Amino acid sequence: MPSRPSPKHKLAILFPVSSKDPRLIWIKCERSFDRGNGITYDMPVIQHLLEIENLDPEYRRAGEFLSVKRNVLRGFNLSYTLQIICRETFMIDGSTPNVSVRHIPKGQMTYD
After folding, report:
1. What is the pLDDT of residues 8-58, one digit of tens each?
2. Total-model pTM
3. Could you state, in order of their start, the residue ranges of all structural domains in the chain?
4. Radius of gyration of the chain (CA)
5. Are the C-beta atoms of residues 67 and 81 closer than 8 Å to each other?
6. Is 93 exposed, middle or buried (0-12, 13-18, 19+ CB in 10 A)?
7. 95-109 CB burial, b ≥16 within 10 A, e <16
8. Fewer CB in a 10 Å sphere around the end CB: N or C, the chain?
9. Buried/exposed code over 11-48 (b: 16+ C-beta within 10 A; e: otherwise)
10. CB–CB of 29/43 below 8 Å?
């Protein structure tokens, strides 16, 4: 793993569309401020990772951010927040099914 490019980068796991093997990558984050609730947070710059060759142009910016703070399966809270980022339109946008996401649970998923 290459060293952290800057303090603005955070470690991430990328599940590539065309490979069975996930890989660790650094993602640059930019500070953002939510005026509504007064919270400052880091926003990952990920659009280049969500752009896929077969994607319908109408859905190019359709990202979904899910926050996980609890390990439900094992029944405990995490001491950190895990953020999962994906395209929320994956079932209708014409994109290729993700090989690595499909491979990890050995084909036992509801959706490709």
Report:
1. 999 998 888 888 899 999 999 998 888 888 888 888 887 777 666 556 667
2. 0.70
3. 9-103
4. 16
5. yes
6. middle
7. beebbbbbeeeeeee
8. N
9. ebeebebeeeeeeeebbebeeeeeeeeeeeeeebebee
10. yes
